[in-house]
Amino acid sequence: MADIKVNSLIPPTWNRLKVNDITLQMPDRMDRCDISFENKDGIKACAEESITTETRKVFEDLQTGAGAEFDGYVKSIGCRSSYIEVSGGKAEGKVSFDGSEAESCMIGIEAKSNTESLIYIDISGADLQSDTLKVLQIKSIVRKGSKLKIVELSHPGDNAIYINDLGVLCEEDARFELVRISLGGSSNTESMYCELAGNRSHASADIGYVMSGERNLDQNYLIRHIGKETTCSIASHGALRDRAQKTFRGSIDFITGCSGSQGEENEDILLMDDTVGNKTVPLILCGEEDVAGAHGASIGRPDEEQLYYITARGTDIAGAYRMLAKAKIDSACMAIENEEIMEKVSAFVENYDLFGTEA
Amino acid sequence: MSAENKTYVDDINRSVYDIKDEEKDAYRIDGGLTEDIVLKISEEKHDPEWMRDFRLKSLKIYNESRMPQWGPSIDGLNMDEIATYVRPNTKMQASWEDVPEDIKNTFERLGIPKAERESLAGVGAQYDSELVYHNVKKEVEDQGVIYTDMESALTGEYEEMVREHFMKLVPPTDHKFAALHGAVWSGGSFVYVPPGVKVSIPLQSYFRLNAKGAGQFEHTLIIVDEGADLHFIEGCSAPKYNVANLHAGCVELFVADGARLRYSTIENWSKNMYNLNTKRALIGKNSRMEWVSGSFGSHVSYLYPMTILNGEGSQCEFTGITFAGEGQNLDTGMKIVHNAPNTSSLVNTRSISKSGGCSTTRTAITVMPEAKGSKSSVSCESLMLDSISRSDTIPAMDIRTSQADIGHEASIGRISDEAVYYLMSRGLSEEDARATIVSGFADQVSKELPLEYAVEMNNLIRLEMKGSIG
């Protein structure tokens, strides 16, 4: 086993706040789990040998949100990636963690120039008696002029120690959009790093989650503006119940030279019980004069008038809480924009036991 | 706007602050930090035994503590080269006429005696490691207000009160430079305001560090008893040298139930200064703490006034501005801990960066499980005046109850071309338009300061902005 530091806050802040990073115990090996696709118009699985040297180097060097130490770790234990080329269209993928003690699914996605693609990934795992480790790492290159949207629905199982890591490089005029819905898991670590290298590139992350019971969620989202006139947005909507704990790090980094760029981030959290713990660290780092950056965070309890309104119409208090929690997921789902996928996600969440056995 | 139309601005004209007095006849301890040096300082200060032991324990903690792993680099600070105690050749006086001429003239140029005559209830003036002047108006004394230097308080009738409070709010274990302060502190003021007493005009302490390569480690201890009201103003400056100076002061504020304390600071240290200052307030039920903070000087600053809202219904308001220019890396902000029900905090910070300056706004709001019904609102705005500067905002919120409402917002940007154009279309020059916008940006802070200090702050900003057009 190795202690690996992940989700580092760059730059760090006061140590006693305990938000600078977390340390995960990682095994010496992990079983491989593959992604399977249905309805895969416009996407093609690529053999590793067919990846060009240039592209392979970009994938290898691409940072992810979990950080260099984690990326080095997955390389050192020989986790091999599947490679996918997307050239427009929609695909629905499934990652089914089968219950092994430690499994990883590594995917490299290259969105070809001037194409528009949507990839929906359902990440599931069995509910087991004991903790198992599940790792999903996606690295994506979004080529010039292309648009790639990745929608992730994660429900890795109640006892999953789940790591969901993402790294993205956007070329000129490229557009990357992430919609990430996180449910279940016992210990969840999710992250994203996006480099807006090309002029006029864009990245967004719309995040929705409900954590209950003893669950914890550690998040690290970093978008780095390098090209000119780049834009980004990070929007996180969530609900915490019981003794759930959550740490959100959201960083927008304007590098000198990215003139004309804009970034914004927002966090909107519902704290449903007194026993929850919430930490929020939204950073704006700026080395360029001609930019505009903003962030906002709103953290609080369910509105009493809203609760009264809902219960006055026949829903019990448990149902009202469920409705408010689902509303957070729905807020993130609005960014999916594809009606078919939105309905799939919404239907799943509707039937999902959001609060587990403690509802 | 194209580069050739851009307005370039001069650095701040600090000549009034850059007056250097000769260190003639001053007693100066060797540079470095050893047990012998700490014992020498203790002897000079005529410490009681408990304070001497306290200093030695603090030194041990200092030696065992590590440097901060976050924040601006302080690699340029070498404690072996810092003289931790420099005593001017004068005792503390109660009349400006008795203060040595050169020192008196320095304070005259800084406007301290004038401010005392016109608008203050009392003044303490510290020069290097000791107070050279201390006076309080009779009518304030008659109210039972105690305003004296720390040494007199420590060795006189207030020793027990000092001992009960000294470095209890900021213990030496808090961080390495709190431990340093505990070992070598000297000078500073002790203030006690009795229950129900409202001090209608401010008290002020002014700290002047004249000696080259020296440190200033004043300790300010203020106790505002139940229902009392005080405004305390702190000012500081130093001439610029080509070696490092260090300021590691400590301010401890105890605000009892129903009391109110406003603590205003205009910090204007020179650009060779490492300003590693710690300020903390503990406030009781239905009490109120107001911080007004203007940071304009120092080479490197670590400055985060902290408030612990320890009584139900207590409130804290923090208003601050930081201006980082060439050669400056100013890491400032605040910390607030909500530790009782129905407490509230309101934070408004502004920062400006220019000419390669780095400004970091670093904040922390913690809401403990006991703080049900608490509210907090934080607003951080940053203005970048060029692309060779930096501005980082690093806020953190740690919320441990659902029954709290917390809001935070921050923004960063540049002077809007449209706003400049609008003002120019109404007859202002480009220079005046930009100066007006920046003054407006700082207005929320300046209006919280007493008039003289608001004027000083606005002058500092306008001097900065009214430069040659390049």
What does this structure look like?
The complex is a heterodimer of chains A (359) and B (470). With 359 residues, chain A is of the alpha/beta class. In chain A, 16% of the residues lie in helices and 49% in strands. In chain A, the strands form three sheets. In chain A, strands 3, 5, 6, 8, 10, 12, 14, 16, 18 and 20 form a ten-stranded mixed beta sheet that branches. Chain A starts with a strand and ends in an 8-residue tail after the last helix. Chain B contains eleven helices and 24 strands. In chain B, a hairpin with a 2-residue loop joins strand 3 (122-127) and strand 4 (130-136). The interface between A and B is large, with 42 and 38 residues.
Q: What value does the Rg of chain B take, in angstroms?
A: 22 Å
Total number of helices of chain A? 5
The greatest interface here is:
A-B, 42 and 38 residues
The proportion of residues in beta strands of chain B is 35-45%
Strand fraction of chain A = over 45%
Please tell me the overall pLDDT of chain B.
Answer: 90
Report helical residue fraction of chain B: 10-25%
- What's the pLDDT, averaged over the residues of chain A? 92
Outline of chain B:
globular
Task: Specify the structural class of chain A.
Answer: alpha/beta
Largest sheet of chain A: 10 strands, mixed
Measured between the Cα atoms of the first and last residue of chain A, the distance is: 36 Å
Overall shape of chain A: it is globular
Low-confidence stretches of chain B: 1-12
Low-confidence spans of chain A: none
Biggest β-sheet description of chain B: 12 strands, mixed
